[in-house]
Amino acid sequence: MKKLLLLLTFLSLLSCNTGPKQGEPVDNQGITTFYFIRHAEKRTDQGSDPELTEEGKKRADAWVNYFFLKNVDNIISSDYKRTKATAAPLAAAHDMEVEIYDVRTVKALDLLEKYRGKTVALFGHSNTINEYTNQLQNDSIYNALDDNDYDSYFYVRVSGSGKSSGVKESMDFMED
């Protein structure tokens, strides 16, 4: 009898699923996730707003593979040809528009406020993506990326209570 009572109790607890039903949005506990990604390789013969090189186009396509099994709510880019071209393949793969932000005026806390609870892929520049990471962590441990560093990016998660953790990662999925 005790075994039957335990079994019934266990089955009763299993049937009291408090999680979301299929098709309902999942509450992510207010966690905001940012991928701060530098634009891919740029041409050096086109002035201050150049296009991507062929290698840069390959790198932009590689981001599609990186995000294949990741949920992305927003894809944003500064208003430069190289950043928009880096973001474009990912946006096309997710059937999304690339949102444009003003790299000269937007601060990390503005981004956090606007995209709270979302997962965002932000395409920026070697001297801005580190700053966004530092601002969200309230420190200054990350320097601007070297001019030839197109492999590094930053991954930052911010909880609903404001606690953050960020890491500098390296894109190791490019084919030679």
Can you describe what's shown?
- The protein is of the alpha/beta class.
- The chain has helices at 2-15, 54-66, 81-93, 108-114, 129-137; strands at 32-38, 74-78, 98-101, 119-124, 152-158, 164-170.
- It has a 6-stranded mixed sheet, with helices on both faces.
- Helix 3 links the parallel strand 2 (74-78) and strand 3 (98-101).
List the helices and strands and how they pair.
Elements: H1 2-15, E1 32-38, H2 54-66, E2 74-78, H3 81-93, E3 98-101, H4 108-114, E4 119-124, H5 129-137, E5 152-158, E6 164-170
Parallel strand pairs: 1-4, 2-3, 2-4
Antiparallel strand pairs: 1-5, 5-6
Question: What order do the helices and strands follow?
Answer: HEHEHEHEHEE
**Cα gyration radius (Å):** 20 Å
Distance between the termini: 67 Å
Helical coverage, percent range: 25-40%
Strand proportion: 15-25%
Please tag this protein with its features.
single chain; 176 residues; alpha/beta; 6-stranded mixed β-sheet; 5 helices; globular; disordered N terminus
Short description:
By secondary structure, the protein is an alpha/beta fold.
